[in-house]
Amino acid sequence: MSYRTYRKRTAALASTAALAGSAVLMAAPAALADVVDVNYQCKTPIGDKAAVSPIDIKSVRSGSGYRLTMTFEKGVSSSPVELGKGAMNPSAVIRLGGADSGTVAVEGPANPEAVPANTPIKITDLSGTYTPEKTGRVTFTAGVLTIEALGTTTTCTPSNNPKPSLELDVTAAGGGTTGGGTTGSTTGSSQDTSAGGEELPRTGPEDSAIALGTLGGSVLLAGAVGVLWLTRRNRARG
């Protein structure tokens, strides 16, 4: 093998390793989160009302499932009379899509402070547990919101076909296959969303970037080992 041919082969090998590492780094993250504007149309005891609130859904791994937290960044609906402390109880459903289907029920604590009359009602954070029954990428989208106050019920339905607030790569606890199926666990609760505490919230690409970067480094290292092997083989032939 001539020196020129040797240099071309080693350069090609190094380039292939570098490209492989770059491809790994560009792979899709395990979770994607976004704050989505949801246009709620509310049926109240005194008539129809409408309000838009940005909705954020976060997840924390909890055992074989995920603890979901739904946050309303703006108030929705209103009351013609003041709602005293603890008078309003919110709940909602999160719609599943992608590899799984169905809904997850989420609930929150009653209002911690009085809500003045004719003032947008600030919804407390709602939480519940989702246990995957299918393996794959699952989407989580804001669904119907229910507000119970002073013996009345207000139902608020998203009217703008909002996009998912969260996308998550999940693995079924029982080894379910990829694809649509029955809904996961729909246990709702107002407990602390850090329950389980096995890992930090997976709501963005940062966690995945670390793992993917490590894998990309392994690919580059494998390429470097190949270069050293070719060098040693060339010397042996010489």
In brief, what are we looking at here?
It contains two helices and eleven strands.
The description of the largest β-sheet is:
11 strands, antiparallel
Tertiary shape:
elongated
Supply Rg.
26 Å
Q: Could you tell me the number of beta strands? A: 11
Q: SSE order, as H and E?
A: HEEEEEEEEEEEH
What structural category arises from helix and sheet content?
A: alpha+beta
Estimate the mean pLDDT confidence.
Answer: 74
**Total helical segments:** 2
Residues in β-strands, percent? 35-45%
Residue share in helix: 10-25%
Low-confidence stretches: 17-26, 178-238
End-to-end separation in angstroms reads 9 Å
Give the topology, please.
Layout lengths: L2 H23 L5 E3 L2 E9 L2 E16 L2 E8 L15 E11 L3 E6 L18 E5 L5 E14 L2 E7 L7 E5 L16 E3 L16 H32 L1
Antiparallel strand pairs: 1-10, 2-3, 2-9, 3-4, 4-7, 5-6, 5-8, 7-11, 8-9, 8-10
What this model shows, in words?
The structure is a single chain. The chain is an alpha+beta fold. 23% of the residues lie in helices and 37% in strands. The protein contains two helices and eleven strands. α1 runs antiparallel to α2. The chain starts with a helix and ends with a helix.
